[in-house]
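Chapter review: from sequence to fold.
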Amino acid sequence: MSFLFGWMKNGVPATPEKIEAAAELAIPIVWLLGKTGAGKSSLIQTLTALSTIEVGNGYEPCTRTSRQFDYPADQPLLRFMDTRGLGEANYDPADDLAASAGHSQAILVLARIDDPVQGEVAEALAEVLAKDPSKQVLLLHTGADLITDEEALSRAKAANAEVFRLKTGRPLREVTVAMPPEKPDENTGIDEVIEHLEVMLPAAALLLARQNSQSAEQIAFDQIRTRVLTYATAAGATDALPLVGIASVPAVQIAMLYYLGTFYGVSWDRKVSTAFLGSMGVGVAARFSANFGIRQIAKLIPVYGQTVGAAAAGTISFATTYALGRAAAMFLHYRSRSKPLSSEKLQAVYREAFSRANHAKN
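The token string follows.
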């Protein structure tokens, strides 16, 4: 590996333990708000393709009024937080906000389409937004399969949406969701939920994205996609800190490339490294180096660097690390099978992966 990114002379060792610890600090949270029976556990089950038993046994207490579900269980990259205290008088979201502090968040509000009494949920959401108005919210009208009349369905959705608009003072993005267990292949609205998450939480969307892999290369990458996301999350977490990212991000990326080489059975010798960097193109490497330096300088600017600059640095490092991992995986797959791979195809995969991982900020 010393041939790859040889400009890094005094790199910081990125052990698996350090990488997982860094990723843990930046696990995105999907905050679920809704009454009992609104379909929160069913939503998690549908998004993750886990069984009812796995979801039921996977919850852990989080705060006095909430519990959490980590996914995947053995190497968490996403946390669902289920708020249970909505029926209690004077619900105070302070503990829940503190439990999720420092993590990027999306709030999914679940309101059953056949239940017009949503006042307590709307009030809880209003409390959360009053304390942190930056939270991104998506309203899910669940149980859409329970009302077959289209006009009645439309009226019910409009009525529920109006309750939330009046309480929060703003209209919410909406998705209609049906999760009939007997029809798992039916268009249930889950794909639309994931599309919204792609804007709200790119890391979560990449983890939950439905895979229609057909080629051998895509199937192979699906086996390690979660691991690549772990490296990308760790890179984004460490690059949000001034100066730390200068050493940590390249170290994490080198560790990722080493892991990928081991997985595909290809050693990163001089010949392989040169071929990969050559296929990626001088322009990609130059733009990456230039942007990385600018991001580090931006983080040192008082106030700006500690907010906008740091956030941008973390987002870009997440996206570039994921895109690098996706491109390297394709390159190593073809290399291990002695098959030709055009630079154009490799660069297109890198650009597409970067765009998806950086979608929220574009």
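Two observations follow directly from the output. Residues 1-12, 240-246, 290-312 have pLDDT under 50 and may be disordered. Residues 305-336 form the longest helix (32 residues).
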